[in-house]
């Protein structure tokens, strides 16, 4: 995830909660604590009314107003591209929240910058296959709240269905599709499931994170996301 897209997503993440710890942000976005601290500082400099620190957690002050953001034309263009890409990669409530947040940010721009952003957005086409493979709100909630799920999964290669109970820990965009990384109780190991091949989803209670199998540990252990993770 590019930094500008991540900063915007972190702002939305903060706005939806009373207070979050730096470790929560790091786990949610798959980055280090040091990166979280830098991102928080960047958001404060950009004008986001964030209170807190690494020890106590962070929150977005609800009663405050954002001061006008001083984007230059190049920054406005990058924001438009990043927001459009992120909107194509999420589903339901998050997409609506992103659209609302982007509208508020663009309202702080001058007329010329707004025209340039509008012109650029009209020239960005998001393929339908990207939208069709976007993670659902249920998947995002399961990752955030550590909730297991019973799924019906169609193997992308053979087309054969299988029923699994999984413990979702994160998402990976690989090629032209999104993949849900989870602990598979049937395989007793980490696996990645192509999002658009999950045809049924049913909550199966909460789970306790398994030692050595957090999203960060899985990705760190397998930086290139080898075929082992995608073997069913």
Describe this entry's structure for a reader.
The chain is α+β, with helices and mostly antiparallel strands. It folds into two domains: 3-128, no CATH class; 137-230, SH3 type barrels. It is built from nine helices and seven strands. The protein has a five-stranded antiparallel β-sheet with strand order 6-5-4-3-7, covered by helices on one side. A two-stranded antiparallel sheet has the order 1-2. Helix 2 packs across helix 3. The chain is globular. The model is unreliable at 64-68 (pLDDT under 50).
Summary tags:
single chain; 232 residues; alpha+beta; SH3 type barrels; two-stranded antiparallel sheet
Topology of helices and strands:
Elements lengths: L2 H13 L6 H8 L3 H14 L3 E4 L3 E4 L12 H15 L4 H16 L3 H11 L6 H5 L4 H9 L1 E8 L6 E14 L2 E8 L4 E6 L3 E9 L8 H7 L11
Antiparallel strand pairs: 1-2, 3-4, 3-7, 4-5, 5-6
Helix pairs in contact: 1-3, 1-4, 2-3, 4-5, 4-6
Largest sheet: 5 strands, antiparallel
Q: Roughly what is the average pLDDT, rounded to an integer?
A: 78
Q: Categorize the overall geometry.
A: globular
Order of helices and strands: HHHEEHHHHHEEEEEH
- Please state the CA-atom Rg, rounded to the nearest Å: 19 Å
Low-confidence stretches: 64-68
Strand content: 15-25%
User: How much helical structure, as a percent, in the residues?
Assistant: 40-55%
Distance between the termini: 26 Å
Number of strand elements:
7
């Amino acid at each position: 995830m590019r930094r500008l897209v991540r900063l915007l997503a972190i702002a939305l993440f903060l706005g939806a909660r009373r207070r979050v710890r730096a470790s929560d942000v790091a786990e949610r976005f798959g980055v280090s604590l040091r990166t979280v601290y830098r991102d928080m500082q960047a958001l404060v400099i950009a004008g986001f009314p964030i209170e807190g620190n690494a020890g106590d957690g962070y929150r977005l002050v609800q009663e405050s107003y954002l001061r006008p953001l001083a984007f230059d034309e190049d920054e406005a263009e990058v924001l438009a591209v990043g927001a459009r890409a992120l909107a194509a990669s999420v589903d339901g409530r998050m997409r609506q929240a992103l659209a609302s947040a982007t509208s508020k940010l663009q309202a702080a721009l001058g007329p010329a910058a707004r025209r340039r952003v509008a012109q650029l957005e009209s020239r960005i086409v998001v393929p339908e296959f990207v939208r069709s493979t976007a993670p659902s709100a249920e998947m995002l909630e399961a990752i955030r709240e550590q909730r297991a799920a019973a799924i019906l999964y169609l193997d992308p290669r053979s087309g054969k269905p299988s029923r699994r109970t999984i413990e979702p820990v994160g998402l990976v965009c690989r090629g032209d599709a999104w993949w849900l990384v989870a602990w598979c109780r049937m395989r007793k190991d980490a696996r990645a499931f192509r999002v658009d091949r999950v045809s049924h989803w049913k909550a199966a209670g909460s789970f306790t994170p398994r030692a050595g199998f957090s999203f960060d540990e899985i990705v760190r252990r397998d930086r290139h996301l080898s075929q082992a993770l995608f073997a069913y």
